[in-house]
Design brief:
With 336 residues, the chain is α/β, with parallel strands linked by helices. The protein contains twelve helices and ten strands. It folds into two domains: 9-48; 56-187 and 230-334, Alpha/Beta hydrolase fold, catalytic domain (Rossmann fold). It has an eight-stranded mixed β-sheet with strand order 1-2-4-3-5-6-7-8, sandwiched between helices. A two-stranded antiparallel ribbon has the order 9-10.
Length: 336
């Protein structure tokens, strides 16, 4: 069981007040103080015992390895040999997110690292975490593994972590891949009505419309996979969500305006069954991408988990992107 080393901050504040009520000698005060403490202990126990959700899509990763990072047990997948490609998962769920990319990249000749962020995938969490702290953990792991230069990919919130890593240590990033995160089409798609649905997306809409309305997600891509995943997210243990939620941190790097990425960037954006590469919404997003060398792929027939829903297309594009800037040696140094 994963244990916090200290009582979470909300409970520490309440604990200070409760100690003040225990001081008076009256039986009522002592009893009231004990009740407060018992309630706090019960709430803390609920957070500590919160159950982690099942892997994304029910997919399995290879067995994780275990190390110590910043005095915590830290788990990660490490498969293959060759240049380092680091795959960062998004919020709440670590396992299964990259299951359909791992074997393809290993076969293509890369050493693939999938870190499991603190509180997820069996990695220990000992206090509040943030994007900057998650990036610190990944850099510490890469230092242990001897990775000097990497290509980093991030899905959803993991895209923001990948950008944090780029902004912190740009000289160690050879390329970056953003998968439906940080620069995405979810906002515009949510504003578009069903009249914009493609023929394929409309079939799913007609079949699953009422189920997604019950989830209050009428605009997302309607298929069986997304219905199952969003139901799983709706059923997540609130205590687990509280435990693994990332906090504000002054060390979180804001994204600069203009061109700030000096390495090749590949961006996958779901079109949510409504937006194609030729549509104005895609053109507007393309104009915001912060790299000189940008490869932009709109995947129209998909929801948020494009790397699973359209794995073959994502894998083909990803391997092609990596091959255009070949890396030699296990440390990811550029080829001469």
């Amino acid at each position: 069981m994963v244990l916090l080393r200290s009582v979470p901050a909300p409970f520490r504040r309440a604990s200070s007040r409760s100690r003040a009520t225990i001081g008076p000698a009256s039986c009522r005060s002592r009893t009231g103080g004990r009740i407060v403490w018992l309630a706090l202990l019960a709430a803390t126990a609920a957070i500590l015992s919160a159950k982690e959700p099942a892997p994304t899509g029910g997919l399995s990763d290879p067995p994780a390895k275990v190390t110590r990072i910043h005095d915590r047990e830290y788990r990660y997948v490490d498969e293959g040999t060759g240049p380092f490609v680091v795959l960062i998962h998004g919020a709440r769920v670590a396992q299964g997110v990259w299951a359909r990319q791992l074997p393809v990249l290993v076969k293509a000749g890369y050493r693939v690292i999938c870190p499991y962020a603190a509180g997820m995938g069996g990695s220990e969490i000992t206090g509040p975490m943030s994007t900057a702290k998650d990036a610190d953990d990944v850099w510490a792991l890469l230092d242990q593994l001897g990775a000097e230069r990497i290509v980093v990919a991030g899905h959803s919130a993991g895209a923001r972590e990948a950008l944090q890593m780029l902004l912190e240590k740009p000289d160690r990033i050879a390329g970056i891949v953003l998968v439906d995160g940080s620069y995405a089409l979810a906002g515009p798609a949510a504003q578009l009505g069903p009249e914009r649905l493609t023929t394929a997306a409309r079939k799913g809409y007609e079949r699953y419309r009422h189920e997604f309305e019950e989830l209050k997600l009428p605009w997302v891509y309607h298929n069986e996979f997304n219905l199952r995943e969003y139901r799983a997210w709706a059923a997540m243990d609130p205590a687990f969500i509280e435990r693994v939620s990332r906090r504000p941190d002054p060390r979180n790097r804001p994204l600069p305006s203009g061109i700030y990425c000096q390495v090749p960037m590949l961006v996958f954006a779901s079109g949510w069954g409504k937006i194609t590469a030729e549509d104005p919404e895609a053109a507007a997003l393309r104009g915001k991408l912060p790299a000189k060398q940008v490869f932009f792929q709109v995947i129209t027939e998909s929801g948020h988990w494009v790397q699973i829903e359209q794995a073959e297309l994502v894998n083909r594009t990803l391997v092609s992107f990596l091959e255009q800037w070949p890396l030699s040696g296990a440390n990811g140094a550029p080829s001469q």
